[in-house]
């Protein structure tokens, strides 16, 4: 196999992943969009968290809310819990890295707020603890995962939404995650700006 063949395999795999995701995630993605819209319309905020590439996705998503997506609109309340290095290092040092998101949800989360929790494996301990904290605070959860969902499957509540990408490779899962987040942003703007 030469380099061009290897590149083609990635495009083919990504296209297959997109097709399977469309078939499996369209309905839960619509549900997640309604939850996001309801959160914003009720004057609540969105908290988001993840590790590594998922941290970048959480930060990107919140930037689209506070700034804008494709069209001008009012800024929307959101906080990426993985961006404050002083909080992350203080909590990680004084307690444990497993609770760096949980403590922030406990401090910032209010009933009616929304947690967007991103973990490609579904098993990230600090993300799982953040979800438990969100439930304790009366928050709903939109969880993004892959690899069959991992431990997320056992802790999400009926009012939560699980967007589990049907793939086992982290790179494919992350590629679909950013698409899902962009679809959420587009759906939110469509409702807020009167497209529906």
TrEMBL record:
Reaction it catalyzes = 2 D-sedoheptulose 7-phosphate = D-glycero-alpha-D-manno-heptose 7-phosphate + D-glycero-beta-D-manno-heptose 7-phosphate
Which stretches are transmembrane?
Answer: none
Q: What is its main location?
A: cytoplasm
Q: Which residues bind substrate?
A: 51-53, 64, 93-94, 119-121, 124, 174
Q: Its pathway?
A: Carbohydrate biosynthesis; D-glycero-D-manno-heptose 7-phosphate biosynthesis; D-glycero-alpha-D-manno-heptose 7-phosphate and D-glycero-beta-D-manno-heptose 7-phosphate from sedoheptulose 7-phosphate: step 1/1
Q: How is the cofactor bound?
A: Binds 1 zinc ion per subunit.
Q: Which residues bind Zn(2+)?
A: 60, 64, 174, 182
Domain spans labelled SIS = 36-196
Q: What is its EC number?
A: 5.3.1.28
Give the subcellular location.
Cytoplasm
Query: One GO term of the cellular component aspect?
Result: cytoplasm
Q: Which UniProt keywords apply?
A: Carbohydrate metabolism, Cytoplasm, Isomerase, Metal-binding, Zinc
Q: Which cofactor does it need?
A: Zn(2+)
Which InterPro entries does this UniProt record tie to the protein? GmhA/DiaA (IPR035461), Phosphoheptose_Isoase (IPR004515), SIS_dom (IPR001347), SIS_dom_sf (IPR046348), SIS_GmhA/DiaA_subfam (IPR050099)
What is any one GO biological process for this UniProt entry?
carbohydrate metabolic process
Query: What Pfam families does the record point to?
Result: SIS_2
Record's subunit section = Homotetramer.
UniProt similarity note:
Belongs to the SIS family. GmhA subfamily.
State the protein's purpose: Catalyzes the isomerization of sedoheptulose 7-phosphate in D-glycero-D-manno-heptose 7-phosphate.
**Name listed for the protein in its UniProt record:** Phosphoheptose isomerase
Gene source species: Pelistega europaea
């Amino acid at each position: 196999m030469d380099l061009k063949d290897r590149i083609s395999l990635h495009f083919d795999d990504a296209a297959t992943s997109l097709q399977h995701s469309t078939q499996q995630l369209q309905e839960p993605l619509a549900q997640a969009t309604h939850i996001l819209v309801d959160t914003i319309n009720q004057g609540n905020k969105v908290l988001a968290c993840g590790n590594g590439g998922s941290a970048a996705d959480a930060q990107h998503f919140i930037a689209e809310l506070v700034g804008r997506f494709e069209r001008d609109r009012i800024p929307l309340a959101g906080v990426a819990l993985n961006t404050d290095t002083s909080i992350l290092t203080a909590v990680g040092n004084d307690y444990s890295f497993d609770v760096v998101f949980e403590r922030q949800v406990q401090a910032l989360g209010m009933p009616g707020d929304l947690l967007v929790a991103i973990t490609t494996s579904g098993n990230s301990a600090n993300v799982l603890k953040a979800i438990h904290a969100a439930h304790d605070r009366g928050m709903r959860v939109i969880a993004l995962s892959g690899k069959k969902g991992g431990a997320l499957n056992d802790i999400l509540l009926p009012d939560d939404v699980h967007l589990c990408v049907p793939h086992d490779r982290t790179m494919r899962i992350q590629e679909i995650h950013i698409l899902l987040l962009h679809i959420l942003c587009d759906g939110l703007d469509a409702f807020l700006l009167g497209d529906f």
